[in-house]
Predict the 3D structure of the following.
Amino acid sequence: MKLAILPTLQSPSDLRGLSDAQLDSLAAEIRECIISTVAKTGGHLGSSLGVVEVTLALHRVLESPRDRIVWDTGHQAYAHKLLTGRYPSFGTLRQLGGLGGFPRRVESEHDVFDGGHAGTGLSIAQGLATARDLRHSMERIAVVVGDAALISGLSMEALNDIGHRQTQLLIVLNDNAMSISPTVGAFSQYFSTLKLSSAWQQSKTAYDRVVESLPVVGQPALKLSRRIRRMVVNFAQPGQLFEDLGITYLGVIPGHNRRGLEHIFRAALDVPGPVLVHVRTHKGRGYRPAERDQIGFHGAALPPMPELETGQPTPEPHAVTHAALTGPALARKESVMPQPGQADEGPVEPATNGSERGSADMGTPSDESRAAAAKRPPNYTHHFALELVELARKDRRIVAVTAGMPTGTGLHLFQAEFPDRFIDVGIAEQHAVALSAGMALAGERPVVALYSTFLQRAFDQEVHDVCQNDLPVVIAVDRAGLVGEDGTSHQGMFTLPTQRQLPRMVIASPKDEQELRSMVMTAFAQDHPFALHYPRDPGFGVPVVEPRVLPVGIGEVLREGRQILIVGFGPIVERGRQAADMLAAEGWSVGLINARFAKPLDSQLILDAARGKTLVVTLEESVVTGGFGSGVLELIEEARLTDPAYREVAVRIVGIPAERFVDHGSVDQLRRLLRLDSAGIAGQIRETLERLRAVPAAPRGTFGAAGAAKKSAG
């Protein structure tokens, strides 16, 4: 086939000048181009062939890139690539230096999000729509999600949140009969058309008001009426789950009738709340081998493709007509499902800090513990929240997100002042992080505050959604380190090693509560993923200082020393200082560095201070495998290869052993048990020095507690 139309297209706007006959020819050309290219390069053939008409319809109805089209997973976006100016380079698909097999923002302004994993699209679209609503702008948001991806846990979390908050967006469910197989019937199609009409929406509301006003029997009659109506809807169509979640369901719609799709998409985009349009497509449409073997021709590694004929498309059953779909859809859903953990009248705040979902702060405190708590300085969470509120007063882009923990994370303080910029998604950490990524894509500056132990659930979203897209999402890692009495499931000991391996992510932790305030400011002053770790602990009560933006990747020298260098990450630095005083009293010359950043490390500062030392000790309240200490060790090992000054430098990593989980107990008890209190740290250093057969530089008591303290502001 000679491609006559496709090579002439420069952007999706060119589609609006084509006739129906030309658009039909264009669909055939797109399939021909995809088939011939994938035969050489490999790729996801079947899914992209199945959504050609859906893609054409979306690009004719929406105005990309002003309007945003999110492709969940992204392997079905080949037609989208061809319609957005990439036809000349499409032959390089999946080749080194060529086009990617998934949407990539570096390729085109029409690619909203760098995808690749199934189930992320709904959260990203929700984030984009949330940012739009906060700015009061007018762009329309659509997301195309496959039937298999729809049943992922992340998709379900997003659907619950979308329905609850009644976010206006278009969800296109591409059902190619691989996972969902409802009957496509005329009655179902008719009922979807009816629901889009203003008459249905207005009469439904009016009828409810009349029934509810009836004396004595009003409320019972209304409940019975709604129950009967739900039964009718459920009988007529397969989308009752979405309706119950608060999402208008339309379907099942034939997915290869472009004119019908265009009309129903236009009508759905006028609905004030979320609308899901369920379209039935044929996977591999237009290529007989792919139609016959939908599983084999799904993935990037395809069976042999000797047949390159396109053949005749499969007839579309129950084709929807343009004339059959009329009338705007105006009304919101009649009810909204409450969030998990919330009553119908609104969110229920817990009585005690952090008790929302089995946190480490549960339990009824005794009078003695209350009195002790009253004497302690406010904790890190409190300082984080206050500084965040202060910054949000100056920057309207800051949005705070949490997952069912508004009080435990301190964000209830943010909520009280900025209710429109506070989002609680319920117990849905994956959605919280992916939603934040979507908002960051739209120019907002989201911070998602989660306990370290719960952030474990969202590792893929950190990797795939935030870091792969290099988005300025601030991840506030509360309860980093030992938590205490909640035991093995709640210790925040694994997050640091998992994040340290991620490209583009900055990882920071303060030595005290005042430095935390500066780090909150620093996080919003840069444009990359930023993980800020801080413990459950109270602060040290250090004097208040004006927060400032810290240079990323720069630490500070707190104390000079000739024999031993202690490098700490986080509030454990203070225990390192106390241990240094103990060792100095025994005659050892000990230096101390506050690293501030685990990634990027202040390599030059650490190497300069480590040169010629007998021992370098790293401190972290995290599992030692792959953590902060491993980064310092890797740095020194690299230097050891070329510089003799490091060849006799020993390194001791002090942290939480990786061999077992940490059981319950008070934080102080656990630190003593793990030898992470100041005495335990000093003891571990002494034992290492004994094994090295090292001796103090001076007689016992020569170096006092004051040492030779020297601070250099980073």
User: Anything to note?
Assistant: The CA atoms of residues 364 and 370 lie 10 Å apart. The first helix runs from residue 20 to 41.
